[in-house]
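C-alpha cells for chain A. Residues wanted.
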C-alpha cells in the first residue's frame, strides 16, 4: 500500500516536478511552481487532474481562464491545451494525477528548464504498458 499525507508531501517538495508513484493506469506527481513561474503551455494525450495545496495562480484550459488557490481542483481532459501560472508571491504547490502515466517513473525535475530539456531529449517517457 502507498500512503501519503499528500498536502504535507507536496508542501515539502522543493522541485518543479517529482513523480511519487506510477501505476499501470495512473501516476501521482507533486509540483512546485515558483513565483512568476508557469508549467508552460502544453497538450497531453492523457487526462490530468490537478489539486492545489497552497499559493495562488491562474488556470488556462482551452482558452478559458480561472483563478486557482488552495483546495481548488482542475480537470484537463486529454487533448486540451493548458497552462498554469503562479500569480502570487509564494510558490504555487499542487499535486496532479495523470491517467495513464505521463512521465518517467521516479522522475525528479528540479526546474522547469530541466524538465523541458529532459522531455526534448526523450528522457522523460512514461513506462511502456
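Reply:
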Amino acid at each position: 500500500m502507498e500512503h501519503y499525507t499528500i498536502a504535507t508531501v507536496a508542501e515539502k517538495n522543493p522541485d518543479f516536478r517529482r513523480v511519487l508513484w506510477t501505476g499501470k493506469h495512473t501516476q501521482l506527481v507533486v509540483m512546485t511552481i515558483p513565483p512568476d513561474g508557469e508549467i508552460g503551455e502544453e497538450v497531453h494525450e492523457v487526462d490530468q487532474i490537478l489539486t492545489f495545496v497552497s499559493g495562488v495562480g491562474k488556470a488556462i484550459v482551452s482558452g478559458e481562464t480561472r483563478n486557482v488557490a488552495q483546495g481548488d481542483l482542475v480537470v484537463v481532459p486529454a487533448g486540451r491545451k493548458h497552462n498554469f501560472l503562479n500569480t502570487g508571491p509564494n510558490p504555487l504547490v499542487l499535486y496532479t494525477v495523470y491517467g495513464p502515466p505521463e512521465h518517467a517513473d521516479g522522475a525528479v525535475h528540479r526546474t522547469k528548464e530541466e524538465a523541458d530539456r529532459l522531455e526534448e531529449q526523450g528522457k522523460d517517457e512514461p513506462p511502456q504498458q
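The radius of gyration is 14 Å. The mean pLDDT is 96.
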